[in-house]
Design brief:
CATH class of the largest domain: Alpha Beta
Number of domains: 3
Strand order of the largest sheet: 1-2-3-5-4
Bound molecules: flavin-adenine dinucleotide
Number of helices: 11
Order of helices and strands: EHEEHEHEEEHHHHHEEHEEEEEEEHH
Largest sheet: 5 strands, mixed
Structural class: alpha+beta
Radius of gyration: 21 Å
Oligomer: single chain
Length: 315
């Protein structure tokens, strides 16, 4: 996008949007004579939720979905650039949860030492665009954009991830599975910022895998993708199984029938061969420019089988 902004002094307009302590955050830009937008760059979460509540602005993080989604349109209205909120960056391990700040980039996820159950999430992170995209793009941006092909959703679903939303009213938590409700639809309210992703520390030693099928090897949107987590018990049987599939329904889905069937089964060679099309009954793949619905269903079956075999081969 071609941005040649003219910076206007924050003056009368500012009074409508923010209290005096937030004056430094406020700029007005004119882009190539096409109109005016208000640009805020808060430095703390408190400032950000305040400015968001008063401006009704659109949130900008890494911008790797935000700007492509504009197409030929200019930015309009208000933009709250949250990329300066250092408190939302990084991964912290606490007794109950591993907490991933919403503004943590995919490169940071890849480079952070994490337990084995995060191997699938790290593999997904390495598949997001290119290194340049991974350096800029954030975890929260991927979840809030809510694309059916968002690579982080299947592995985070298998980790039983929860998300935290911060607003002027406080914070609320909900399971990731309840947050994304449709193709690019979430239950996020306009004044809310996804502040962190919380992963319960329940299966840290479990093996985890992420497999993605695209039309080429790199920089590709998924045709189908699968994440799996398998925890063995002391007798080498499956104690906990979590499998999810993305790009084969409007929202990535766990496969509960398959997960239940796997409990107690020997966690060894041939685990994948137990998977049948019946176990994928809750998927609803569509046909589009990337693949037919039938191809996606078949690809999902093969990927689930391979993911389970890889989990037991590597655990
Ligand atoms: C060339 C290219 C290749 C790509 N390849 C892939 C790929 O292979 N796999 C994949 O999954 N994605 C891919 N993407 C998409 C994108 O990089 C990811 O979805 C990324 O994680 C988005 O993060 P961001 O910080 O850039 O989000 P932004 O673009 O800043 O924001 C995305 C959306 O989320 C909202 N938002 C952002 N942060 C928050 C927050 N904390 N709270 C509330 N709302 C928020 C924004 O308002 C916006 O609607 C690709 C993008 C490009 C340009």
């Amino acid at each position: 996008m071609y941005l040649r902004p003219t910076l206007y002094k924050p003056c009368r307009l500012y009074q409508n949007y923010a209290q005096p302590q937030f004056a430094a955050l406020f700029y007005v830009f004119r882009i190539c004579g096409q109109g005016v937008f208000l640009y805020f760059r808060p430095e703390t979460l408190d400032e950000a939720v305040h400015v968001l509540a008063h401006s009704g602005g659109q949130i900008l993080a890494g911008g790797t979905d935000f700007f492509p989604a504009l197409g030929d349109r200019s930015v309009t209205g208000s933009v709250v650039d949250i990329s300066g909120l250092r408190e939302l960056r990084g991964v912290v391990t606490e007794p109950q949860y591993v907490k991933i700040g919403g503004l943590t980039t995919w490169t940071e996820v890849i480079n952070t030492p994490l337990p084995q159950c995060f191997d699938g999430l790290k593999a997904a992170a390495r598949e997001i665009g290119s290194v340049q995209i991974q350096n800029r793009a954030t975890v929260a941006g991927n979840l809030c954009n809510a694309s059916p092909a968002a690579d982080s959703v299947p592995p985070l679903l298998t980790l039983d991830a929860e998300i935290e939303l911060a607003s002027q009213a406080g914070t609320r938590r909900l399971p990731l599975g309840d947050f994304i409700v449709g193709n690019r639809k979430t239950v996020r309210q306009p004044g809310e910022i996804l502040s962190q992703v919380l992963v319960p520390r329940t299966v840290e030693n479990a093996a985890s895998v992420f497999l993605k099928l695209g039309a080429r090897r790199y920089l590709v949107i998924s045709i189908a993708m699968v994440a799996a987590v398998i925890q063995k018990d002391s007798t080498d049987r499956v104690a906990d199984a979590r499998v999810s599939v993305g790009s084969c329904s409007a929202v990535a889905r766990r496969l509960p029938t398959l997960e239940q069937m796997l409990i107690g089964v020997p966690a060894g060679p041939g685990l994948g061969s137990l998977v049948t099309t019946d176990h994928l009954h809750n998927l609803s793949p569509i046909g589009d420019v990337r693949a037919t619905a039938a191809y996606r269903r078949d690809a999902a079956l093969r990927l689930v089988q391979r993911a389970l075999d890889e989990c037991v081969g590597s655990s």
